[in-house]
Amino acid sequence: MHAGLPLAEPTNLNLQTPPVLRLRLVAHRTLFDISGKKVWGKSYNGKFVGPTLHFLPGERVELTLVNQLSTPTNLHFHGLRLSPSGSGDNPFISVPAGHSFTYYFTVPNDQTPGTFWYHDHDMCMGNSPMNMPGMSMPAHMRMSTTSSKCLDVESQLYDGLAGTIIVGDVRNLLPAALHNITTHTLVFKDMQITADNHIRENGANTMIDDGAPTVRLVNGQLRPLLNMKPGSTELWHLANEGADIFYNLSMPNWSFTVVGEDGQLVRRTVKATSLLLPAGKRYDVVVTAPKAPGDAWLHTLAYNSGPVGNAFPDVELLHVRVAGTPANMSTLPANVAIGSEKSLANAPIAQHRDVHLGEDESGQHMTINGKPFDMNKSIFSTPAVLGTTEEWTIYNDTGEAHPFHVHTDYFQVMSINGKAQPFNGDQDTVVVPFIQKVVIRIHFEGFTGKVMFHCHIAAHEVAGMMSFINVVAPKH
Ligand SMILES: [Cu+2]
Q1: From 67, 206, 303, 437, which residue has the greatest number of CB atoms within 10 Å?
Q2: How far apart are the first and last CA of the chain?
Q3: What is the pLDDT of residues 245-296, one digit of tens each?
């Protein structure tokens, strides 16, 4: 691999956003060119970072997934408020090898502009009958859907089956002087490569080891080069679309002004010198280059996820060269009003729930409330009621951090290990530090159905740290 090539953006699957948007993603085995090195993996439409989808609030989307892989796959639209049932954002759908499936959904009118992503969420459903709405499965196909012929979500994500979704244009919410600033999408993924030039997968003879040395990439490139003019201001869409590992982003002597987190607008902008992105997390940030020319690096700082977790080293990710004619551009300070999401601090709480994240000593068997994932049974015997707010206390009973992700509806982080968190917007993924607890509030306002939640370290999700809650309509 050769470092230092000019930064390439992920390709766009669409730029037009008509009222009915028809898109096609083809999942297939692919020989990637990763900064000059040929590596086998799996892709949507040919690139290690899948093409970027652009949606508008209120838009009808008809997205056909063509599965040319030799194993089942599916799609999850991470962070979007979509129905978890039918042909919407339904991870219980599994598209068999050689088949296609069209996802139909409408982006909510009140969907905030920001950065989201899509990725495989196939749950290797073993001998359970396929659940594809509108598709009756011939008997011979039902026979073929055994667990021996599926590939776990960690392997599929790691292989390359993920891409970015951008809703609307966050720049329109910034002060007028910043409406036309340059944007970049920066997607973080890592890669471990086998001796025969395949991206590592879990299988009979190999395992992805999320603590092993790995190659960290930006947009599928090794330490690419981004040119900026002195004093210029840009909007960066940051997304950790990797399977397992953390990114602790920082640029010495620079700062990030956070506009959105997990596709949710912040109430007021905040300055940050580092941003922790577990797998699945996104930030929309504004950055301004210094007035003096020079070189800077976007790093992931060293990060330790806990005594039985991983100690990730400091790694340079992106070379930013500040050169050329100085630009005299506006900056984005802290404390600028952006979003209008209301706090749930005073909401009546319909239900309190405890969520215990657990794992055994081997780290191979993981649980929520003592139970490994069962796609047929929620860990909760009582459902949630649409229109109500619940408070969940997530206890991390293990010696490593777990990023907790909820589908369909966002949540508000109330406290971390007893320390109250000021409200500045919602999230869909929160890091629960080892042996600590995090309290969140969720207002179930979107949809009835099975709403998944899980650790977004894909290895942990596969090991069983996943369940769902049944959300039901209120009784009248
Ligand atoms: Cu985990």
Answers
A1: 67
A2: 62
A3: 999 999 999 999 999 999 999 999 999 999 999 999 999 999 999 999 999 9
> CATH 2.60.40.420: does it fit domain 349-472?
yes
Q: Are 277 and 250 in contact (CB under 8 A)?
A: no
Q: How far apart are CA 373 and CA 191, in angstroms?
A: 27
Tell me what pLDDT residue 125 has: 58
Residues of the chain with confidence (pLDDT) below 50: 126-147
Domain ranges of the chain: 20-167, 170-322, 349-472
Distance from residue 261's CA to the centre of ligand 1 (Å): 20
CA pair distance 258, 271, nearest whole angstrom: 6
For residue 183, the one-letter residue type is: T
CATH number of the domain located at residue range(s) 20-167 in this protein: 2.60.40.420
pTM beyond 0.90: yes
Residues with CB under 5 Å of ion ligand 1 are 402, 455, 457, 460
For residue 397, report the distance from its CA to the centre of ligand 1, in Å: 11
CA of 226 to the centre of ligand 1 (A): 33
At 7 the pLDDT is 97
Cα 171 to averaged position of ligand 1 atoms, centre (Å): 34
Count the Cβ atoms, other than its own, within 10 Å of residue 444: 22
| CA 335 distance to own-chain centroid | 26
The tokens for 135 are 């598709």
Which two three-digit tokens encode residue 7?
A: 């930064």
Contact yes or no for 230/323 (Cβ under 8 A): yes
CA of 434 to the centre of ligand 1 (A): 10
In contact, 235 and 260? CB cutoff 8 Å: no
Structure confidence by residue, pLDDT tens digits, 123-172: 875 433 344 444 444 333 333 344 457 999 999 999 999 999 999 999 99
Provide the pLDDT for residue 148.
52
Helices (H) and strands (E) in the chain, counts: 3, 32
